[in-house]
Structures are given as C-alpha cells and as structure tokens.
Amino acid sequence: MPPKLIGPYRVMDTLGSGGVGTVYRALDRRTNDTVALKLLSAAPALDARAARRLAREYETLAELAHPNVVKVFDVGVFQGYPYLVMELIEGLTLRHYLDLRGSDLHSPSGSFSLPRSRALPSDDDSDSWGDAEDSDDSESPFNLAAFSEEEPSEDMNLHGGAESVRALADAADEPDTEGSDDTRPSPALADPKVQLVERRIQEARTDELNRPERMGRLKDAMLQVCEALAYIHGHGLVHRDLKPSNIMVDEDRQVRLMDFGLAKFLADDAGLTGDGRFVGTFRYMSPEQILGEPLDARADLYSLGVILYELLSGRPPFDAKTPSQLWQQVLEVEPAPVLAINLKGDPQLARVAHRLLRKELDDRYQTAEEVYEALAE
Ligand SMILES: Nc1ncnc2c1ncn2[C@@H]1O[C@H](COP(=O)(O)OP(=O)(O)OP(=O)(O)O)[C@@H](O)[C@H]1O
C-alpha cells in the first residue's frame, strides 16, 4: 500500500517503479497542482548530513529551466527516505514512444494519443544477466545494484572500486572453461530452411526499425535530447545514468530528460557509493565510468551512443552474460557495425552512434552541440 501522505503531498496513484524507488502521481495540497513524486525507498534512511546534502543538490536542480529537462519542484525526506517532486509528464518513455504506430500517432491536434505509461510494461533498459548464477540480493538495504536495473550480483558489489573492476575485466580474459563460447552452429541452425526463416525474421525486425516515421521520430527525439544535454552540461552537471527510461516524450512530442542529479546524489565523483558500489546502469556506462575515473559530459555522450545504437539496430552494442564480460567488451571490443546488423539502417545516424561509442574520450564528439550538428546535417 502506498503511503497516503508524503510531506505536503497527497498520493493519488502509482506511476511506476524503478530500481531505487517508486514514482507516484501526487497532489500538492498547498497549490492543488498535480506532480510526480519519486520516493527513493530503496535508499538508506538519511542521516542529518545526507539530508543537508540532498537539500544542496536540490538548489542546483531547482535552478534548471529548459523545455527538454523535467522541472524539479521540491525535495524532502519521508520517514527517513529522500523524495524528489517533479513535473508530471503525461507521456511515454522514449522506447515506448518509438514503438507507437499508425492511429496512435495521428490525432487531429498533431499530438499523439496515449496508452498511459503506467499501463505499459516497464521500460526494458535492464541488462540480461538477471538469472546469472552470482546473484545475491541480500547485501545491503541500499540496493544500488537495483538502481542499475540489473539483479544484484557479486560482481556489482565492488568494494575497492576501479581496481576491482580492472581485476574483473582481466578475469574475464580467462578462457571460458565451460565452453559456453562455442560458436559452432547447431545442426538445426545449419539447416538452410531454418536459416531462411531466421533471415526473414531478421528482415521483418529491421523493416520495423526502419519505418520512415519511426526514424523521423527517433531523429527528432535525439536532437531534443542533445539540447537537454547541452543545457545540463552547460550548468556543470553530468547526468551519469542516461538511458531510454530516463527520457520521456510528452503528448506534444516534447522530450523530457529526467533523473539527472540523482546519480550524483547517490554516489561520489567516481560514481561509487561509500561502500564501493556503482551508481548507474551498466549497459549504458562509458569505459571511464566502468574504470571509476572522474566523469565529464563525454560520459553522457557515450551513453547516448549506446541508446542510439540500440534504437537503430534493435540490439545493444555489447551483449554479455555477466557484468564483468560486459565491462571487458566495453573496454576492449569494437561494437559490430550498425549497418551490418541493420543493412538498410540510416548511415548518417549509424555514423553518429559509432563516433559516440569511441572508447577514447578525445575520439568522441566533445559536446552535445557537436552531436546535434552531426544529427541535423
Ligand atoms: N515525472 C514523471 N512524470 C510521469 N511519469 C513518470 C515521471 N517520472 C517517472 N515516471 C514513470 O515512473 C516510471 C518509473 O520511474 P523510475 O524513474 O522510478 O524508474 P526507471 O527510470 O525505470 O528506473 P531507475 O530508478 O533505475 O531510474 C517511469 O517508467 C515512468 O513511466
């Protein structure tokens, strides 16, 4: 049962749940405004020092005002747990918005009609090692692994930070003694009929991805994300947890970037909490974030590259069974060309995605403005 009252806010219903807490539709009893309230119930109860830090973070967030950045109205502490009050977006997450088709998109006003976001399955930004054998969710009341949208695992419990990450990546270099990387096709897959069916399915998938109006929406949304990033970077902020579920599109097709500042509040400069756990979603993390190095705006541009790559090709640039395998790939392996996966994909957007995904920071675009220019060409 959700609480009825959180500070001066009356809880109306639940909009969704993520790794660190739950987002409620709520009424501000002082103004009668409807807002979205994110209660970080997976966080540790705040001591007085952390509550003061939250208030300081809020001062930075409250100053932000940009059409593509969700407005933050208030922060507070409820029964020891921090909450964030923000503008209520009547819209969809980016992935769901791109999945809309036909009649959903053509209302007389030019806006799109919504299957309500709460009625949709949660956005699947999560990594696919939820059933990894090393799962262990008994560690901590503040479950940052959950914030990372994966099932917690020992690998994610990184006491010692960057050094441990490097050790894990090194360990991932060891040959797989269980032979799970045996890539020989099974007899069934070698069957030409099966191969033909596989090819047809793949073609149908990429035709769906390449629908011209989907591509138009993707490009338009990416341009707006660049505007939002340019704005927050201009204010000295790094998002640190950019992913499709943190990008919402409202009924007027206006993109809103959300959840910036949260990762910073939850972690120190290297993206680690006091006990050495990561904050952020592994699948979208840049090499420098994995290595626990100080982050700048270019880490967000890398995450934007992962998002663009996924939305163009239908699959993530790196696919691994465990976090350590993923890290090893992010640090050492070049992603397969988007156009090798989606033969009829947009070459310009594919080029942008690959440059965003460069491992060396200096090889990437350096600013969100540059990415905007490249997308708009
Ligand atoms: N400002 C908002 N207005 C309307 N709906 C929102 C708002 N913020 C979040 N939501 C809804 O609540 C859901 C859960 O959001 P939340 O931020 O908790 O999860 P998440 O982004 O999937 O995960 P994480 O906690 O890892 O960032 C979102 O998918 C979205 O549908």
From TrEMBL:
It is an enzyme of class 2 (transferase). Its EC number is 2.7.11.1. Residues 122-139, 171-180 have a biased composition (Acidic residues). Pfam families: PK_Tyr_Ser-Thr (PF07714). Coiled coil: none annotated. The keyword Cytoplasm applies. GO terms for molecular function: ATP binding; protein serine/threonine kinase activity. This is Serine/threonine-protein kinase pkn.
